[in-house]
């Protein structure tokens, strides 16, 4: 019997990690770090045969260098992006060291989308495009003849940079699905509406002579937002002001250019015709604090660590604005801003928040309707396991899948041990 043990990403977003035990082997799907407290999954790495990684976000790959793994499977862009995530982690949290990164890099085996790979003697894998960030994958595993689909983080619609998530799988016995926006309350406005909101908010601040801070993750949403802003500036609908970004963003945005084959066809064509879809980006230095209006796009997305912290002092000035563009986990500065904090304390001294705080969910995740559409497009599984959502979202999606699609569904807690197939 194949057993799944859930080490993280249960009733939470953070440290996603599922252990799969078969008669002959043991693998991990993802091995993430909790972005709010740098928490790691509680696992014994000695008998793990391999780790398969869905994508290069901290909550899916951040813990890997802390452990000693024999083999790590991911695709080429994920390997490159992951290296960046690990480097940032070394400088921010000191959970592991530079040598640990090297040791992990040495055991990476890369796989392309739709290429079949033997992971262990009784587990085969194919990666499919998950539409969430560059290189993001849904993992389709053949475990001794039974089929598991681990969606990873998915986006079911095409975006400015990526294709929509693939749904053309062969039969599925069990699905493990994300539930970031798994409750019926999580229905998001259309992309176009969000883009318009973002541009209106930026224009308002720039017209008042202020600065806009946009905290982002280095990968994914940041490139989407940069493309949107660049398009509006080029068309004249948004006034041209300097756009400052930080080092790791320069690097990852450059990587998007290098992996144009992995992007949606429109942007791939632009890049191949030598049109830079990201426009003119400037590496931020002291000039960011000058009096001129500007846009600052900086990591980290939940305002928990990263260069964005040094720009929070700008919020003393009521003319300036911070635009949160994604999910803010509990316990992060981003979340406290979202909940109306009157001051924040990125370093020793508290900073009063006088500037406007706006949230525009420019998410790289499928919303509730999108998750249901995804479930209806794929071959119907016999069983659904819901992860990667806060408690209410995870339980809501499990309930919806059971009620509307008649597929038995559950949202395991951390430490749960379940038979993977019926
Ligand atoms: Zn992700
Ligand atoms: Zn995630």
TrEMBL record:
Sorted keywords for this record are: Exonuclease, Hydrolase, Metal-binding, Nuclease, Zinc
Residues crossing the lipid bilayer are none
The record, for Pfam families, names:
Beta-Casp, Lactamase_B, RMMBL
Taxonomic superkingdom: Archaea
Answer whether the UniProt record assigns the keyword Nuclease to this protein.
yes
What cofactor(s) does the depicted protein rely on? Zn(2+)
According to the UniProt entry, its GO molecular function terms are: exonuclease activity; metal ion binding; RNA endonuclease activity
Query: CDD domains in the record, alphabetically?
Result: TTHA0252-CPSF-like_MBL-fold
Q: Where is the Metallo-beta-lactamase domain?
A: 14-191
Q: What class of enzyme is it?
A: hydrolase
Q: What's the EC number here?
A: 3.1.-.-
SUPFAM superfamilies recorded for this chain? Metallo-hydrolase/oxidoreductase (SSF56281)
**Which residue ranges does the record assign to the Beta-Casp domain?**
222-337
Name of the protein in question: MBL fold metallo-hydrolase
According to its UniProt entry, this protein's organism is: Methanococcus maripaludis (Methanococcus deltae)
């Amino acid at each position: 019997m194949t057993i799944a043990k859930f080490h993280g990403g249960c009733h939470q977003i953070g440290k996603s990690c599922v252990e799969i035990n078969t008669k002959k082997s043991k693998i991990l799907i993802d091995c993430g770090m909790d972005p709010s407290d740098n928490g790691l999954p509680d696992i014994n790495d000695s008998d793990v045969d391999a780790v398969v990684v869905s994508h290069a976000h901290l909550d899916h790959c951040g813990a890997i260098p802390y452990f000693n793994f024999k083999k790590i499977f991911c695709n080429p862009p994920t390997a490159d992006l992951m290296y960046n995530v690990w480097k940032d982690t070394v400088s921010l949290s000191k959970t592991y060291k530079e040598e640990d990164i090297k040791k992990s890099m040495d055991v990476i085996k890369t796989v392309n989308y739709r290429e079949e790979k033997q992971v262990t003697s009784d587990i085969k894998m194919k990666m499919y495009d998950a539409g969430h960030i560059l290189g993001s994958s849904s993992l389709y595993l053949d475990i001794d003849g039974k089929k598991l689909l681990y969606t990873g983080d998915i986006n079911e619609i095409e975006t400015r940079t990526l294709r929509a998530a693939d749904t053309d799988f062969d039969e599925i016995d069990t699905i493990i699905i994300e539930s970031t926006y798994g409750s019926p309350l999580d229905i998001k406005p259309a992309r176009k509406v969000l883009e318009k909101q973002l541009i209106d908010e930026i224009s308002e601040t720039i017209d008042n002579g202020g600065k806009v801070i946009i905290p982002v993750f280095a990968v994914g949403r940041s490139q989407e937002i940069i493309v949107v802003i660049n398009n509006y500036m080029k068309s004249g609908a948004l006034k041209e002001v300097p756009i400052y970004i930080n080092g790791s963003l320069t690097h990852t945005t450059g990587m998007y250019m290098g992996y144009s084959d992995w992007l949606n066809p429109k942007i791939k064509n632009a890049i191949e015709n030598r049109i830079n879809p990201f426009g003119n980006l400037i590496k931020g230095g002291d000039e960011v604090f000058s009096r001129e209006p500007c846009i600052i796009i900086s990591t980290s997305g939940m305002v928990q660590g990263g260069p964005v912290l040094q720009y929070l002092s700008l919020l003393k000035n009521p003319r300036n604005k911070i635009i949160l563009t994604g999910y803010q986990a509990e316990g992060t500065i981003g979340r406290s801003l979202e909940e109306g904090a009157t001051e924040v304390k990125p370093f020793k001294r508290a900073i009063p928040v006088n500037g406007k705080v706006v949230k525009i969910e420019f998410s790289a995740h499928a919303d509730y309707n999108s998750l249901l559409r995804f479930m209806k497009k794929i071959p119907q599984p016999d069983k659904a396991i819901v992860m990667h959502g806060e408690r209410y979202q995870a339980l809501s999606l499990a309930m919806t899948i059971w009620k509307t699609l008649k597929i038995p569904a559950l949202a395991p807690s951390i430490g749960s041990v379940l038979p993977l197939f019926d």
